[in-house]
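anyone seen this seq b4? input:
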Amino acid sequence: MSPVLRFSLSCILLTTMIPVFAAPETPSSDFTDNGDGTVTHAVTGLTWKRCVEGMQWDGKSCSGTAGLYNADEASKLTSTFAGQSDWRLPSIAELQSIVEREAFSPSINISVFPNTPARGTHSYTVPANNLTFPNHTWQVDFIFGQMTPTSKLLKSVARLVRGKAPIPNGQAYTPTQNFTDNGDGTLTDKTTGLTWKRCAEGLVWDGKTCIGLPTFFELGNATEIATTKAELATVDFAGKKDWRIPTINELVTIIEFNSLLPAINPVLFPNSPNFAFSSSGCPINSSQKCVYWDVGFNNTGSDAVARTEAEPFRGTGYVEGGVETPSLDNTIRLVRGKQATSGATTSNDDAAKYNALTQVLTLSDVLVGSTHYQASLQFNAGNSQFTLLSSQVLAAPQNTVPASYDLNSLNLIIPRVLVAGKNYKATLLNKDPAKFVFSLVGLEELK
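predicted toks r here
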């Protein structure tokens, strides 16, 4: 029996805290503070001004009054700051990448972007649907984090970015050449490192395209959400069993803002349903009122192309337009892997991850003897234990400092694990090798 089968984790901290709190989507560890009022985002490689235009960086925070601009005024903004003069307005795809959907008013990481105004923020991207939205540009509302087309006349704030050439309006945001066709009904995004199923759930890959009809998932209450996610966590496709529902920040990376009906690249994702797609937004075992995110890839009715929606979810139904309905019926596209950093090697931060939504603990690299493994484990609230879902031998180490399991002491040491937005070093002891049950014996918060 493989030593990695010993990873059936049970610890007080993880079982009491992790299922309740969702991990941040833009943690501070993803940003490099350049010490000059700018930060560089490892996920995208972009460098952002920490303050919106009109406010000043005082060495510690942003002070002053934010400027308000209409779309034309915002598009002309330039700046010479931190020794650079190529600052510009971001695209909507760039701007949404710094939305923190685990925060509210403002929906941004305030440690990285202090004193951010909780209001609409400009991008330069115009909607592909000019008939429905003439004289509009895409904005992000940093109260809730939604993105939506907004009148060009509206006065809003602006945050400038640099580091990559802007994508001209009318040019593809998700060009086919940016993806690797794996030849098995999956695609890998070269930019994010994520691997996507080309077909939505319910459709079947026939070797050339997606055929059949999509499955609509009833997400009307916490029990149904848990059931749906448990079922999808067992999907075996293209030789992989770690498929999952994407986060909203992952889902928006495949929006094609230059396409209509649906707003997705049809070469990459053929016959994609013209409906809203769910993200893994509502944490299981959270309070009865939380926010459930989806992306509407459609253009019907009052929906904008690829509008993100977020409404209160009250445990028994979905609230839309102030009216509570019995369920939220959406389609789902599965993903696997992680959103890779830009130009950065895999770090110790990724040695262990817990997904509060699927309740799966992933050890991307654990050293057992002289062999490196990857393992995923499922949390069982009934017995407060984690049980092994899958494991595989790694051809090469994935982390600078991997998790490690000592076959003599039976100690499992996880150098960094994210719990409720904080990082900890955890030491666990296998107290029952026959049943592969671990208990927590040491915990240290990492600053």
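The longest strand covers residues 422-432. The two ends are 38 Å apart (CA to CA). kinda curious what u guys think
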